[in-house]
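At this stage, I wrote out one protein, both as residues and as discrete backbone shape codes, and that material follows here.
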Amino acid sequence: MNAQTEKLLIPGAAGAIEVARDVAPEACGVAVIAHPHPLFGGTMDNKVVQTLARAFVQCGWSTLRFNFRGVGQSAGVHDEGRGEAADLLQVVEQLAPQGPLCLAGFSFGAFVTSHVVAALAPQRDIYKIALIGTAASRFNVLPIAAELHERTLVVHGEADDTVPLASVMDWARPQVLPVTVVPGGGHFFHGQLPLLRSLVVRHLRA
């Protein structure tokens, strides 16, 4: 993301996990960000993921982006979300074991993040959650516990042709979980990344 980005390799269930860490000055906590689908070119260097990282750093959060198994220098092979959730949990356990924690994900990463939120929330306080372009039409995205709704930002592009907005509304409706819709926005928010960043910053500062 910048010259200060630190690259790490940590042990995971499938072997090494490649992590990029950006440390915020006087950080108030750590945010872990999950990237889009590995089989369709998704990596921790995806522009939406980097936009999320910049928003968190701007608000005083150190950030951890990481490559799911089989991507970049991360060992292993794609595991349809199960192993990827284990990867995310390993990053949290090893690099953010205590203190304030935020979780964020884009597309497939939002699906994985929903499962990690469900696993962690009973024993760990999660300060804020950001789910962007949530892949609700393609995967079993878990509902967000009602007590976490005020801490959760869901953003989706109105014109997303990868994950139709209707599928996210179908997921959110039974929970009465608000969805922030970017007018005319596509799945990758081309031309609208500054707006996405400002929405995340506003959520973190609320």
User: Anything to note?
Assistant: Strands lie at 6-12, 15-22, 29-34, 61-66, 101-106, 128-132, 152-157, 180-182.
